[in-house]
Amino acid sequence: MLQTATILLAITALGGLLMAGIRFTTKHNPPAWLAMVHGLLAASGLTLLAYAICTLPVPRMATLALALFLLAAAGGAVMSLAYKWRQRLLPAWLVVAHAITAVIAFVLLLLAAFGQASP
Asked: Most buried one in 20, 104, 106, 112, CB count within 10 A?
């Protein structure tokens, strides 16, 4: 389950990179459909990760990864509801903070899913 969650979140990250590229190169927000797909994929990966944590013995890094992903998700929700919904340009600092938090969480999840960490 951790490996499947990792794959889902890797695909999510590709969409995040695309959206960050759009935001920083065009000075416009990415299209709403792309943000929605990104959020839905992230929610799928996080749900699977949370289920794995609740039902299986998993490394502690997976739990820390979930906490950081939830923090990143909160930042994504703020970007969507407070900025994108109101058609305001996403603040660069928030996009970067969201990305850094998600990358750290993803690395922890990679180590938990594919590394030699024990539960």
From this structure: 112
